[in-house]
Amino acid sequence: MKKNTFIFLILISIILIFLFYIGCSTEPVNITTTTKKTTTTVADKTPPEWVIGYPKVEAISSTGFTLKVKINESGIIYYIVVDNNVTPPTSSQVKDQINYGSVILKTSDFVSITANTEASFLVTGLIANTEYDVYVVSEDANSNLMTSPYKID
Predict the structure, then answer these.
(1) HSE-up (13 A, CA, CB side) for residue 142
(2) Could you give the 3-state DSSP secondary structure of residue 95?
(3) Using CA atoms, how far apart are residues 89 and 81, in angstroms rounded to an integer?
(4) 44-71 residues labelled b (16+ CB within 10 A) or e (exposed)
(5) Within 13 Å and on the Cβ side, how many CA atoms surround 94?
(6) Which of the residues 1, 54, 76, 110 has the least number of beta carbons within 10 Å of its own beta carbon?
C-alpha cells in the first residue's frame, strides 16, 4: 500500500470516529415548539329580550304613571306615549322619539340600563281621563334593536 493511501485512510478513520462520537453524545437536546392560540369573536346579532314580567306600569295617577323595565342585556330602553289606538310605531320610530306620520308624541324618554337590572321612568304631564298607548323598545350595546315595540294599553 502506498504511503499517501495509508495516510488518507487514517484521516478518514479519524473523521468517522469523530462523527460517531458526536452522534452518540448523551447530552440532552432541547427542542422548542411554539403553539399559536387563536381566539374567534362572534359578533352579537341578537337584540335584548324582556325579562319576564317587564315592561310594566305601576303607580297610575290621573296624570301619569311609573314605567318599569328590565332586559337580559345591557343597553338602552326607549319609550313613547301616544293617543290611544293611533297607528302603531316601528321600533325605529320609538327609538327616534319624534312624531311619525300624523301621530304626535305626548311624551318620550330613554335610559341606559344594565343587564337584569330594573329601571324606572316617571311619566307625568298627561291629561286626566284620557286613554294612551305606551310603546317600549330596547337596543343592546351592539345596536341590535328589538324588531317590534312592546305595547302597553
Answers:
(1) 9
(2) helix
(3) 11
(4) eeebbebeeebbeeeeeeeebbebbbbb
(5) 27
(6) 1
- The answer to whether 93 and 67 have CB atoms below 8 angstroms apart is no
Indicate the average pLDDT of the chain: 87
Report in angstroms the alpha-carbon separations of 46 from 74, 96, 116, 138, 146: 12, 20, 16, 12, 9
Q: Which three cell numbers stand for residue 111?
A: 335610559
In this predicted model, what pLDDT tens digit does every residue of 91-137 receive, in sequence order? 999 999 999 999 999 999 999 999 999 999 999 999 999 999 999 99
Q: Which residues of 106-125 are buried (b: 16+ CB within 10 A; e: fewer)?
A: bbbebeebeeeeebebebee
What is the CA angle 118-66-46, rounded to 5? 40
DSSP 76: E
